[in-house]
Hints:
It contains three helices and nine strands, in the order H-E-E-E-E-E-E-H-E-E-H-E.
Amino acid sequence: xxxxxxxxxxxxxxxxxxxxxxxxxxxxxNLQGYNEQPYHFGFxxxxxxxxxxxxxxxxxxxxxxxxxxxxDFNADSIYVNSVTASASPGFSxxxxxxxxxxxxxxxxxxxxxxxxxxxLNYGIRATGLAAExxxxxxxSFVVHKxxxxxxxxxxxxxxxxxxxxxxxxxxxxGGINYAIDLAAIKKxxxxxxxxxxxxxxxxxxxxxxxxFDFYNSYFKLSVEAKMIYGLKNLVVDDNTLYSGxxxxxxxxxxxxxxxxx
Length: 261
C-alpha cells in the first residue's frame, strides 16, 4: 500500500503540473483535428507494481511435508501455516497503435515489455529443525520466495474519450491482454532449481483504467493509471512445499504510464 500511495502521489503531481501548463496556454487550441485522424502511433513509458492474488489449499496447516518435498529444510515435521504475497516496483516500455472507430471510441494495440518482481511469503512451522533442537520443539519463521518476471504483453484495448475541453480531456480504457513471461520460460528450459517456484509462462488478463489527455504544441501526452488482473492460474504443482501449498495464483499488476503520441 505504501508503494501504491507513492505512485498515486506521483500521478497527482504530474496531472497538476501538466494541467497548469495547459491552462497557461489560454485560448490557443493545440493539435486541432487530432482526434479525427483515422490512426496514429506513439510510445509509452511506465512504472508498475507487480503482485499476486493467492488462494492457499484447503487444510493448509494440517499437511506435514516430507523432507524430499521441502529441500530448503532438514526437519522432522514441516507445516505451512500461511501463504501471502507482497509487491515490488518495476518499469515498462512499449509502442502504441491507435485506430479511430467512432467519434469518442478508439481501438488500441500496445505491445509492451515489463520488468518486475514480487514475493511469496510462507509462514513455516517446523519440528526438530536442527540436530541440537529437541524433537518435540516447534520453530516458526517466514520464508520469502522472490519471483522475477519479464513480460512481453499484447493488450488490445478500447479507449472511450470524453469531449475535449481546451487542451485536455479524460478517458476510460479497458480490454484484454495476452502475456508471455520470459523469465518463467527460461526457468523451464534450464530446469527448476530445488526450492524454486515453477509458474506457467502464459497468462490472459483483463485491463481497466482511466487517464487524462494533454494536447501540446507538437504531441499529445497521456497520463494513465490502470489495473491488470490475471485470469489464468499460474502455479504449476510439482508436489513441493512451495507450489503444493497454493491452490490458485493469479497475477495482479498496477501500472502508471505516460504515453507520447
